[in-house]
Structure formats: structure tokens, C-alpha cells
Amino acid sequence: MRRATLAALAGSVILAGLSVATLPFSHGLFLAQRSPYGERPGWILLQRAGPLLPDGSSVLVRTEPPDPANDVYLHRYGVALLPGRRIVPAALWGVPTSADLQREAGYEVVVGVRPEPPPGRLLLEMPEGTVWRREQ
């Protein structure tokens, strides 16, 4: 190779290395990065609830106190994180669903404070929320 080509190649490598070193995530370049969802209470609770909820079960995922805007996202998280279960929406498009539809669920995942009265038998309690087996 010619000297000019080698000099250009070496300069490119140095500039690329300096660019990577200034990136905000460069301190953990080869470590798995946390998802922005991984720190959301609903995401954390649904991941922990998964093993407690049998395949084929119906699950209501909601917030306490009720928040229809957040319930829409929790429904989507539930569909993504709880495959093999039927996720009953607590709200669709920011509007709460009917109490009859919500009663179809055999399990309830509540993000936020512990609901009163309890919806059934407590399966899991953590700072992000609770998981319940509902009384039918």
C-alpha cells in the first residue's frame, strides 16, 4: 500500500475511536444496555408477574388509582410481556372499559398502590404494585 493510503486509514481509525469514546454510552459499550421501558413500574411488575399467571388465563392489567391514559399502555405491555394469556383492557383509547368486561379476568395486575377492597388472593406484592388471583 502507499504511504498516503496508510496514513488516511490510520487517521480514520483514530477519529472513529475518538468519536466512540465521546458517546454517552461508551463506558459500557460492550455491556447490555437497559431498555427505557425496563425502569417503568408496569414493565417491572409484569415481568415478575409472568411466572405466576398460567397460560390461557385472562389477566386485567390496570393502575391504582385508576388512570385510563396509563391503562392503555399497560394493556400493550401486558400483551407484549405475557404471551399465551388473554389480556383484558382496563381502558382503550383513554376511555375506561366496562366493569362487565373487566370482571372476565381471573387475575389482576395492579400497578401502583394496593387496591381497597382487595380484588382476591394476593400472589405478589412489590413496590411497583400487586398481583391478585381474583375471586369469581
Q: What does this entry look like structurally?
A:
With 136 residues, the chain is α/β, with parallel strands linked by helices. It folds into 2 domains: 1-33; 36-134. The chain is built from 4 helices and 7 strands, in the order H-H-E-H-E-E-E-H-E-E-E. The protein has helices spanning 3-21, 41-49, 68-81, 99-102, and strands spanning 58-64, 86-89, 91-92, 95-96, 107-112, 120-126, 129-134. The strands form 2 sheets. A 5-stranded mixed beta sheet has the order 2-1-5-7-6. Strands 3-4 form a two-stranded antiparallel sheet. A hairpin with a 2-residue loop joins strand 6 and strand 7 (129-134). Helix 2 runs parallel beside helix 3. The model has no long low-confidence stretch (mean pLDDT 85).
Topology (SSEs and partners):
Blueprint: H1 3-21, H2 41-49, E1 58-64, H3 68-81, E2 86-89, E3 91-92, E4 95-96, H4 99-102, E5 107-112, E6 120-126, E7 129-134
Give a quick rundown of the structure.
The protein is of the alpha/beta class and 136 residues long.
- How are strands sequenced across the largest beta sheet? 2-1-5-7-6
**Strand fraction band?**
25-35%
In whole angstroms, the N-to-C terminal distance is 78 Å
Tell me the Rg in angstroms.
23 Å
What kind of assembly state do the chains in view correspond to?
single chain
Bulk shape: elongated
- Element-level helix/strand string: HHEHEEEHEEE
Query: So how many helices?
Result: 4
Count of separate structural domains? 2
What does the average pLDDT come to? Answer: 85
